[in-house]
From TrEMBL:
This protein's name: FAD dependent oxidoreductase domain-containing protein
Database matches in InterPro entries: FAD-dep_OxRdtase, FAD/NAD-bd_sf
Record organism: Vigna angularis var. angularis
Domain called FAD dependent oxidoreductase: residue spans: 50-425
Lineage: Eukaryota, Viridiplantae, Streptophyta, Embryophyta, Tracheophyta
PANTHER family cross-referenced by the UniProt entry: FAD-DEPENDENT OXIDOREDUCTASE FAMILY PROTEIN (PTHR13847:SF261), SARCOSINE DEHYDROGENASE-RELATED (PTHR13847)
GO cellular component labels: cytoplasm
Amino acid sequence: MKNLNVWPNPSGRISPCRSTSPTLSLVRFVPPSPSSVRCHSSLTHHTFRCAVLGAGFAGLSVVWHLLKQSPKELNLRVDIYDEVGIGGGASGISGGLLHPYSPKVKLLWEGAQCWKESMELLRVAEEASVSKDYRTGESADNMEAFIAHKRGILRPATDMKNMIKLNDNVKTCLPSCRVQTLNNGEAQSLLPGVYLPFNTAFYMPEALNINSGHYLQALFRGCEILVKESSSLDSSQKQLKLHIRSVDRLSEFEGEYDAVIVCLGAKVNMLPELSGRLPLRTCRGVIAQLELHEDMKGYPERAPSILSDAWIAVQGSHSLNLGSTWEWKSVNSSPNVSSDEAAKALDELLPKASTIYPGIKDWVFTGARAGLRAMPPLTTLGSLPLLGCINDVIGINQTCKYWLFGGLGSRGLLYHAWLGNLMAQAVLSFNEEVIPSELRSWKAIEPKCSFLL
Ligand SMILES: Cc1cc2nc3c(=O)[nH]c(=O)nc-3n(C[C@H](O)[C@H](O)[C@H](O)COP(=O)(O)OP(=O)(O)OC[C@H]3O[C@@H](n4cnc5c(N)ncnc54)[C@H](O)[C@@H]3O)c2cc1C
């Protein structure tokens, strides 16, 4: 692997900078030592210019970490480009279910780290949401209440064959996100009326249901606050700007930026430089919004959301989201759902949900929205997102470094925080090897025709 640890000098040329960190292959999960970025500090007059393409979970997480990790003395400009705005893609419509387990309650790859860092970014967003000058038009109290519902998630066993496996997996759960095995009586006391086909459910009391739109707005606000704070404390300048603009090709950024980080979700394949070159498949998902008449007794105040063949993400006592469909190979990224598509989704989701929560029959459909997932290949470690420097994929010798942060699949909330942190470290140290090899191994996969849009 070539040493990528270089930094642009004030004249705009690239000059090598020797890393002072120990053997790079051994520092996989350790942030680069401050000295690896401190060697750039003599370049105080140069502004390091970063373009982040996409303002979803991936884009905003990397922005936060770039601002947080950049050395005090470094002038940094971060420009975010999104054709819709914050949460304009799958992130803005996501169901918002957050826990570190597979459907069989197996701890996912690096689940502990992912969970810890997601909690940290959630804390950042929650703090920003109650900051004095929060400007969304909603009251701060309202905003905080809606960022995360901390009511836990219930996963009923739906398959006898897998019961032994599920019970085994539970033993390796995290202390910070516990999984408790409940019998029918225990589940009933949490959620009266729940039906457990095999008399067993797995309960994650710390699992969350995030309001993705509010979370992203608040995280962006957290980034703005960080810029404001560092500008008043540090000698250097930090700048952050959101541009509502469509990106047609990567070459638009050549010459203007030192680093371009591509976080375009499922639409990444639309860029001519990357089209057909990434091992990603797309999958559209529809979520239905249901409400209960106000005269009826609502969903119990502290009762958990439900994760089953369909999931129920509780929004309030009389409002919930029901998801989600899986339409593989769709290229439709529109959040809008036609009445035909909504009817089809309800036909599929309602029977699944009512098996576990028969009370859903009293709820009334009020609307639907949809998003397109960018699904990475399945590996022996699970479906891992795709990260890394993509100059070699694009195949041109640029002075700018292009990076990919994509393929978050159906677990963007879990992965975005830790991987955004790693991506920022890689960009700031110009060292791709900061990113675990498991997340870079996609480069060895030959894209198949089915990856082409
Ligand atoms: C129905 C559904 C339910 C889901 N539920 C969950 C869940 O409960 N929990 C969970 O963890 N994950 C869930 N996911 C997955 C999660 O939403 C994704 O993993 C995540 O949103 C991906 O984030 P991203 O930032 O990579 O992409 P996106 O959120 O899609 O962000 C990409 C951004 O790039 C912008 N963009 C795209 N093309 C261009 C262009 N050419 N020019 C400028 N801007 C552009 C878009 O407007 C968008 O804002 C769900 C997904 C779907 C579809």
